[in-house]
Write a structure and sequence with these properties.
The protein is an alpha/beta fold. The chain has 2 domains: about 270 residues, 3-Layer(aba) Sandwich (Rossmann fold); about 200 residues, P-loop containing nucleotide triphosphate hydrolases (Rossmann fold). It is built from 20 helices and 20 strands. Strands 6-7-8-3-9-10 form a 6-stranded mixed beta sheet, sandwiched between helices. A 6-stranded mixed beta sheet has the order 16-17-18-13-19-20, with helices on both faces. β4 and β5 form a beta hairpin. It is globular.
Length: about 575
């Protein structure tokens, strides 16, 4: 589907903001669509942003990079004027020759979603769980465009088709919980681009997407820019994506801009030490790890044995008296994981990776097959023992949805301790929590905070700390580092290596990030449509893939372009 199939935004907003943009430049593109001057932000007196300033032209892409908590997302929310209570914003934020801080709320509501679209970082919390995906996309269209409900539904269907959710497979009547993490992110992107905004702020837009879908989404954004002169602010921790997309780059650290400029200048000749550390961490992440395969005794009994596993979901009948139908999400999957071994599992969103995770954890009924952990059966048909629960922990994909927002971090991280045969006292439990948080780069003071007080990357670090606290034998990591910035990601990967070497800890590393899988895995499995289509030693699979699908995945993965850097 091409861009020109969408109705023009100007025809639906006569005399509004679109005319403001074009009135100063005639037929030429607006040269400065967005301008920030000495922007500062405090929340209840705590400084968040300090002297932020940059410009963004129509048709250009600005990449904003930095560690979690550096102020990237708060900069975006400042532009959108969606700040929490107690915020005090200073400086000037100018969009299309209008200072946003001076506009009344009604005008800001018209601009948000209409002329400025935003893709939020966490798709599950950004979507309304009680509304269908069709209703949520069409709601945005009806709010900002003068169209009938029928026209809005038609545009909704086309928009969802365009972001990779074909209506035949993903009808508008589906709810967010019926989609995988990557599919939910595509719905969020559809909401943001449905009204053809002049500026699109993308806050980690490809975090939850597999590499082939990520390539398609990035190509979609490029197409929108080319045909509609769209300005894109790309906030991401993935330097490879920025190196392939951005025209200019802003590097943020602790609420300040430490470096900015043309992509080539910043990426190939960074002047600030912090920028150089980010690149060093990114290159470290993309290195192939030293395999531990020679130290793994394959003649010993496996830690985890999966034999001919089949998992199915019931689906709606085609007619009232029709036969019951089911969808096979995991189809005849078999594999072993040995003590101290790291096994990677890659595949597109919806291929069955998360279903397999739930089955391994004993959270889903098996249609057939078996799962053994240290020769003990793990199945939802019977209660999983405390010993098995202690030996197998998990880090989920959504760092916000996996926590109870009413509890503080200290209680959240200590929750797995209840499976221990001997319960630690309060003092020992608190020390364990502090040690676990320190191992993932967090502070002991964070135990008294709520989960909403942290950035997306910080939340995922807390989730990893919770998995480590019982000292398990196997950790299942479901997109465990997808939300982490590059320096923390490198730190966590080194931590995982250390734990595996020192304690014989095994991992099932489920990820769409091929560079990370290549970095952490001894063996890798490639999953498609519920089946394992290729498996083998990581190096051999990545250097000489045999299956067409594996070749497509490797070809679609973005590469960090820093070859010219001294």
């Amino acid at each position: 589907m091409s861009v020109d199939q969408f109705p023009s935004a100007e025809s639906d907003h006569p005399g509004e903001l679109s005319s403001v943009v074009s009135s100063n430049t005639g037929d030429a593109p607006a040269q400065c669509l967005l301008k920030l001057e000495r922007v500062g932000l405090t929340i209840h007196g705590t400084p968040i942003l300090n002297d932020i300033g940059f410009t963004l032209e129509s048709g250009k892409t600005l990449g904003i990079i930095g560690e979690s908590g550096s102020g990237k997302s708060m900069t975006a929310l400042s532009i959108m004027q969606l700040l929490p209570r107690g915020s005090k914003l200073s400086g000037r934020i100018q969009f299309a020759n209008q200072q946003l801080q001076q506009l009344p709320e009604q005008m800001l509501c018209d601009i948000r979603g209409g002329d400025i679209g935003m893709i939020f970082q966490e798709p599950m919390s950004a979507l309304n769980p009680v509304k269908t995906i069709g209703d949520q996309v069409s709601e945005s269209i009806q709010l900002h465009r003068q169209v009938s409900r029928y026209e809005a539904v038609t545009l909704t269907a086309k928009t969802l088709e365009r972001v990779g959710l074909p209506n035949k497979a993903f009808p508008l009547s589906r709810y967010p919980h019926e989609l995988s993490g990557g599919q939910r992110q595509r719905v969020v992107i559809a909401i943001a681009v449905a009204c053809q905004p002049k500026l699109l702020i993308a806050d980690e837009p490809t975090t939850a997407l597999d590499v082939t879908t990520q390539a398609g989404i990035l190509e979609l954004l490029k197409s929108l820019q080319h045909d509609e002169d769209l300005a894109l602010m790309l906030i991401t921790h993935d330097l490879a994506v920025v190196s392939n997309m951005a025209d200019d780059v802003v590097v943020m650290n602790q609420g300040s801009i430490v470096e900015q400029g043309d992509l080539g200048a910043v990426f190939h000749r960074p002047s600030h030490s912090y920028t150089r550390r980010l690149f060093d961490a990114s290159v470290l992440t993309q290195l192939t790890r030293d395999t531990r395969a020679m130290r793994i005794d394959s003649s010993a009994k496996p830690l985890l044995q999966v034999e001919q596993l089949v998992c199915e979901y019931p689906i709606k009948r085609t007619s009232l008296l029709g036969p019951a139908r089911s969808f096979r999400a995991v189809d005849d999957v078999s594999f072993d994981i040995y003590h101290g071994e790291s096994v990677g599992l890659v595949g597109e969103s919806g291929c069955g990776k998360s279903t397999l995770t739930r089955a391994l954890l004993g959270l889903m009924k098996l249609h057939s097959g078996s799962i053994l952990l240290n020769s003990e059966s793990v199945s939802a048909k019977q209660e999983v023992s405390r010993a098995a629960r202690r030996q197998m922990q998990v880090v989920f994909q959504d760092p916000y949805g996996s926590f109870n927002p009413r509890h503080k971090v200290g209680r959240l991280v200590s929750e797995p301790l209840f499976v221990l045969a001997q319960q630690p006292d309060a003092s020992e439990a608190r020390q364990r929590v502090h040690d676990a948080l320190a191992s993932v780069g967090m502070n002991s003071a964070d135990t008294d905070k709520f989960i909403h007080e942290f950035s997306g990357g910080q939340r995922q670090r807390i989730a990893i700390a919770r998995a480590l606290i019982t000292e398990p034998s196997l950790i299942i990591l479901d997109e465990a580092v997808s939300a982490l910035d590059v320096s923390v990601r490198a730190q966590v990967l080194r931590l995982l290596d250390t734990l595996a070497n020192d304690k014989g800890l095994a991992y099932l590393f489920i990820s769409h990030d091929l560079s990370v899988v290549q970095r952490v895995s001894d063996r890798v499995m490639v999953m498609r449509h519920g089946k394992i289509v290729e498996r083998g030693q990581t190096q051999s699979v990545f250097t000489d893939p045999q299956h067409d699908y594996t070749q497509q995945l490797i070809a679609a993965a973005p590469q960090l372009k820093v070859q010219e850097r001294n």
